[in-house]
Amino acid sequence: MQLHEKQIQEAYARAREQYAKWGVDTEQVLERLKTIPVSIHCWQGDDVIGFERSTEGLTGGIQATGNYPGRANNPEELRADLDKALSLIPGRHRVNLHAIYAETGGARVNRDELGPEHFEGWVGWAKERGIGLDFNPTFFSHPLSDDGFTLSHPDEGIRQFWIEHGKASRRIAEHFGKQLGTPAVNNIWIPDGYKDVPIDRFGPRQRLVEALDEILSEDVSKEHCIDAVEGKLFGIGSESYVVGSHDFYLAYSVSRGTLLCLDAGHFHPTEVVSDKISAVLSVLNGVLLHVSRPVRWDSDHVVTMNDELQAIMQEIVRGGVLDRTYIALDFFDASINRVAAWVIGTRNAIKALLFAMLEPTDKLKQYELDKDYTSRLALLEEFKTYPFGAVWDYYCLIQGVPVREQWLSDVKDYEQSVQFKRS
Ligand code: RNT
Ligand code: ZN
């Protein structure tokens, strides 16, 4: 069924009136929404494989399961797939790279030797599209991370190799920021940890502090590169002890002034990022979100429009902290079309943001202060069936991207004509 422009506009006009009754200006909301970038992770496009391939597949206790055909095999294919996804997502967004996506022209360049010159393909591509890039050093899928330790490795030589990689990454991020005129977030996540209960919990953490300090000691312009650190509860093979736990990085980011990265899949099942945002932003200057979805052992399912996604976006909007929150995505599903995975997850993140922005927050806050919890609950629940979909459809229409599920046939055509033809 094709949706006609006129129908979309009429439905929007009615929705606009209904929201206006509660003081919500949908026009203003959509103006604001289009300025909020989501950092789209390149690694959904190729199952976190990258172009370096110094190990057999993905390591570091994370996994992309599934074998849906059509994965991108090289920079050109990955960028083409990203272009396709970006054309189906409303708004102007960013792309998040990992060091393993360097283009070295066939030469073997180790991670401690990577430089901005190995990302010129990406920078040129981003420039043409007027989008920003973010970065991540890759502390996994490498022979020197095979025993499960990197920046906290007991061997000084190996540790130093990873420290150099960390420094190189900040220089690359700084270059992105300079070239593209928008600061690049450089996020450090390491897989270090033990499968079984360790004797020494202090040693690796002490080494990690020192290694991080050394990485950050290099003078890199804060104007172009913003440092972030990401903790985790456990990984496959590091079930008993993770060196860079949430508590570790919380303390570290407070004392060093970095961003703290909260990945929605990195906590105990009943612990939620949506409650942590206001906790950490009451003290920290900024936070990086890895919007993701945990399922059993996996922390990286495609983001759906579930309660927690909505709660996360509500927290950012209600708290007025959009300008201190960097929204990035982190999921990888190899069992479905990878372009579709990007489109579904990113559209959901934006949808949830829009849903949060269409709330009469001031009114609700007043009810709360007045101890009128009855009205608070009643209004919140009634707003769930307000015509949010009509506003979303209209936003897609004016942003020039497919309305509703119309994007799906686009992806189906693309997989037939492009993705399935790949070797
Ligand atoms: C791993 C972290 C990390 C990675 C990416 C690929 O648990 O979430 O952010 O998913 O860097
Ligand atoms: Zn993450």
Would you mind describing this structure in some detail?
With 423 residues, the protein is of the alpha/beta class. Strands 4-6-8-9-12 form a 5-stranded parallel beta sheet. A 3-stranded parallel beta sheet has the order 1-2-3. A two-stranded antiparallel ribbon has the order 5-7. It has 14 helices and 12 strands. β8 (259-263), α8 and β9 form a beta-alpha-beta unit. The protein has one domain (37-359): TIM Barrel (Alpha-Beta Barrel). 43% of the residues lie in helices and 11% in strands. The protein is globular and about 65 Å long. The chain has helices at residues 5-20, 26-33, 75-86, 120-129, 156-180, 202-217, 246-256, 273-281, 307-318, 338-357, 361-369, 373-383, 388-398, 406-417; strands at 39-41, 94-96, 133-134, 184-188, 193-194, 225-230, 241-242, 259-263, 287-291, 293-295, 298-301, 325-329. Bound molecules: L-rhamnitol (RNT) and zinc ion. The site of L-rhamnitol (RNT) has 11 residues, from loops.
